[in-house]
Structure formats: structure tokens, C-alpha cells
Amino acid sequence: MLKGKVWRFGADVDTDMIIPARYLNTTDPAVLAAHCFTDVAPEFARQVVPGEIIVAGKNFGCGSSREHAPIALKAAGISCVIAASFARIFYRNALNIGLPILESEAAAEEVKAGDLLQVDLAEGVITNLTSGRVYQTTPFPPFMRELINGGGLIPYLRQKLAGNQEV
Amino acid sequence: MTISEKILAAHAGKKEVRPGDLIQARIDLALGNDITAPVAIKEFARIGVDRVFDPEAIALVPDHFTPNKDINSAEQVKILREFARQYGIKHYFEVGRMGVEHCLLPEQGLVGPGDLVIGADSHTCTYGALGAFSTGVGSTDLAAAMASGEVWLKVPPSIKFIYYGKLQPFVGGKDLILYTIGQIGVDGALYAAMEFTGETIAALGMDDRFTMANMAIEAGAKNGIFAVDERTIEYVTGRYKKPYTIYSSDPDAEYRQTYQWDVSTLEPQVALPHLPENVRPVRTVGNIELQQVVIGSCTNGRLSDLRIAAQILKGQKVHRNLRLIIIPGTPEIYRQAVREGLIEIFIDAGAAVSTPTCGPCLGGHMGILARGERALATTNRNFIGRMGHPESEVYLAGPAVAAASAVKGRIAHPEEVLQSA
Questions:
Q1: Is B220 within 8 Å of chain A by CB?
Q2: Which residues make Cβ contacts (< 8 Å) with residue B338, sequence separation at least 6?
Q3: Does B136 reach chain A within 8 Å, measured CB to CB?
Q4: Mutate to test the interface with B, among A60, A65, A71 (most CBs of B within 10 A)
Q5: pLDDT digit string (tens) for A57-67?
Q6: What does the pLDDT read at residue A166?
Q7: Residue B36 in contact with residue B139, Cβ under 8 Å?
Q8: Interchain CB distance below 8 Å, A12 and B275
Q9: B337-375 confidence digits (pLDDT tens)
């Protein structure tokens, strides 16, 4: 069960906002985290507290395929991203590296900055402890649940390759 | 089934797939660049295999921060170079032979019709112009694919775009795709396959098709795709050495949506900051002064783009208050542009011509904007801070508008330059 305060963002948050390309000459998660949202929310990297949650509008993570974006969010301590919808490469990347993401149009519309959320990832239920509202999110297909529960794509693949040399 | 569904079914070893199916598919090619491959190589090491699935089916292209702009980016390319040596990667492209990846790979014959390609770069969707299913993924996906030769994919629903009519002069693939994104929005094709068809498309050259497929991601799409025709076959003949399969959509294939547009009166289009969906005809944008124009990138760095730019710039001078940066997409495009006298036209006009690089498109190097500056670029994204300072602006257009704007010092219709010549 995750619990954290909310950082609020709007629609079409692109990966250049999450981590501008000028910082992509490194793969160090701590450096990426230090520059996360630097152009659009310079206070984010300084003020974010581990466990906090991002709530955003539609098409979160659009643009570049840079995995540095979910890596930066995860390294900054973000425990979960909730959005009305996700851009597809960001969606893959988040699942592949084990950053929890949830889709909920209602939560994206109603949750406010600073609200305290509780998230049950297994059930896909978001509870807004500030407003008392409860949101049921779109459940993941079984394969993706398997990926998430296994800690991402690499542990999943390692297991698969160990079980079958022909893969 | 649609062409996209048929390619995915064939690579998943299935007779049929339907939108929403999760498949494990065999890939024909995996691509990484100097930003995404270092992360992939780190993840690859965690998998615990001692070889890649096929050293001839991986392409590593250090094109983003190259020729290296600083020590960190040089270290990143070094990771690619050493990985390529260690695992015998055949298609590693060193500076000098390197081009902007999505111009380079089709030109070098690494992608053919019916292929399934993944690349750790969002504009990997470019190769749909060849009738391939090609999509951008992340670095961890690339790592997994380099080890296993497979990728997990959800079969996308297809959206059909039918274009009618003969295009006006100086209207091309870039204008068609900008218009399309303007109509459907930056998530108008989210998770979907964009299938481009119609009489206008049949008359469109390959470079324009690459431009259109390239920006499918800017509508949120998984891939953009074109049917294979005689132009496609002419392009791949002599380049792509492997046998290939031509897939086409069945007459009764199912589409989530169909859009039909008469584009015979379409004007050159411009996308205003800060989203590619903020699209307007060039004549309606008003007096927008510019400090920089960039012609190049995986969207519009091909030979026909340079020819159009040269046609407008011939005998003209770049406006005194503006920098024009022209970046041929590959060494081969560069060489041909030299042969045809295009580069001389550019230099005579007062442009800076660069060796191939992604450079300014993503605010990497080779043309970064200062606070408050405005650029018009033939690139693909105009997000906040995309080309430099967070308070700079990027406008997107095709090569004709870009060249005309460079002469006028403001956003201009190509006719404004040709009439005054």
C-alpha cells in the first residue's frame, strides 16, 4: 500500500519536461532526478519527498522514448504516477523498470495538489484521504501484472531465459 | 486483417491477431542510439547472457550528441563502441559514416517491407513508410530484444487516413502530417496504428512518406504505415538484400476510425509552440520574427528536402538577423547534395551546413536557442525548451516554408520569396 502527497500536473506532460535532453549525456539516476521537471517546475527536485505521487491529465509522458524520464521520476522518490492516460512508450518504460502507474480519468480530474492519497496497487484502488473519494482504476492485463510483480522486464526475461534456452 | 495486424501475426507465429491481443513477436531489427543504448547496455548486462541474439540484426547509431559535444557524451558513445566490438555488432556507425538514424537505416538497406523493427527512439515509426511495422520502445525493451530477439507488443487498433486530391506547389508530406495531427490532436491516435492511404499518398515520393510515418508518434501512435507500391519497391531494390514479404490490408479489414480529407487546396502548414497539434496554414500565423531556422532531422533531412530548400534559396541571402542551419541526414545525402550543387547554394546564401547529427532538434548542440529566441525548424517537436532555453520557442514546418522564412527573417510562405526573386 502506497501513501503520499500529490504533485499535480496538467495534460500532455512530455518527456522533455520530465527530463530535458541536455541532461541525457548521463545515465546516473541521481543526476537525472536532480534535474527532473527543472524547466517547468524547478521546485520539484528540491521539494519532492520520497513516496509522493504525481497526478496528471491525459497523454502523460508523450514525446521521446527516453527511459531517463521514468528513471528520473523513480529516483526522485515518486512512488506512483496516476494519469487520465499515458503515452505508450512511457507506459512500457514505466512497467519495464518497475515504476507503478495507474490510469484514472476521474482521479486525474478531481485530485488536487497536496491531497494525501493511498494507493492499493494490487487492487488498483486509489483513496483520496483528503477528500474521502475512492477511485477504481483500469486493471492491467495478466501479462503486465506478471511483469510488475516480477520487478520489471529484465527479471522476467532472466527467468524465462533460464527456463528455456531456445527463447 | 490490416497490414499492421498481418505483420504482427506473422512475427508472432500466429494465423491471426486482433487489436488488444498481447503477443510475443520475433523482431527483424533492433536499434539504439547514443542516448538510449547506454541504458540498454547496462540492463543487458543484468540479463546474464553472453551473446546477442543476432549481431547482424542490431543497429547502433551514435547520432544525437555527435560529433561528441562534451566529455559525458563522448563517454556514452564509448559505451556503444565497446559493446559493438565486444559482441560483433555489424551495424555500428562511426562518425563520418554515421547519419541521423531514421534517414540512415532505410538508406543503408537495413529495413525492408514486412519487417518488424523496434528502436529505442520514438521516431522509429519512420520505417512504416516501407510497409514495415516499426515502433519506438525504451532502453529496457532494447536490452531484452538484443538478448532474446523478441518483444512484447499489444496489437494496436488501426485508424485509416485517406487523402484525396493533387497537392499544391510547396505542399508535401510534412504539411499532410502536420494537418493530420492538427485535426486529431497529440493523442488522437494513442496506442493505435495510423494507416496512410488514398490517391494523394499514391503520388507521394518516398521521402515525403518517411516524413509522415516519422511523425505518427506526435499523434501518440504506435506506428504509421503505408502500403507497398512500385515506389517502395524501387526504393528498396539494390538496398535491401534479404527476401521480403509484401503485406496489404484486406478489403474487409476493421478500423477503429476512418478520416477522409480533400487536400487539394491545403496550404503549407505550421505548428505553433508548444505542441505539434497547434497547426495553422502559414498565411494565418501573422508576423512572427525568427532568429534561427533549422533544416534537417529524421523528419526532413533527406535529399528531396534539401532540393526544395535549394530551389528557394538559390540566389537569395539569409536574413541578416537570422541563422540558417542545414543538416543533411546522412553522408550519402550530403555527398549527393554536393554533387547537385545544393551545398554551394546554401553556403552562398549564408547558411551553416553541418555534418549529420540530431543536434539542435532536441536541444543537444549545434544551434541552441537563447532566452526569448524563436526558431522555425523542419524537425518534429516544439515542446517547451525543446531547442534550448525554456523561454525560447520552436515552430514546425516543411523545408519550403523553412527556406522562405530564413530569407524573410520571419515565418513566410514560399511564394513570397519566389515572387520577389
A1: yes
A2: none
A3: yes
A4: A65
A5: 999 999 999 99
A6: 45
A7: yes
A8: yes
A9: 999 999 999 999 999 999 999 999 999 999 999 999 999
Q: What is the pTM of this model?
A: 0.97
- State mean pLDDT over B23-38: 97
Chain B contact probe: residue of A18, A24, A156 with most B CBs at under 10 A: A24
Average the pLDDT over B5-14 and give the result.
98
Q: What domains are there in chain B, each with its CATH number?
A: 3-261 (3.30.499.10), 269-420 (3.30.499.10)
Residues of chain A contacting B36 with CB distance shorter than 8 Å? 65-67
**DSSP labels for B343-364?**
HHHHHHHT-EE--S--GGGGTS
Nearest to B64 by CA among B397, B327, B396: B327
Q: Answer whether B102 touches A (CB < 8 Å).
A: no
Strands B279-281 and B269-271: antiparallel
CB B143 within 8 A of CB B30: no
By the 8 A CB rule, do B156 and B150 touch? no
Indicate whether A164 pLDDT > 80.
no
**B374 CB near a chain A CB, below 8 Å?**
no
pLDDT tens digits for range A79-107: 999 999 999 999 999 999 999 999 999 99
Share of chain A above pLDDT 90, in %: 81
Asked if B263 is an interface residue toward chain A (Cβ–Cβ < 8 A), one would say no
Cell matching residue B389: 532555453
The nearest CA of chain B is from the CA of A129 a distance in Å of 31
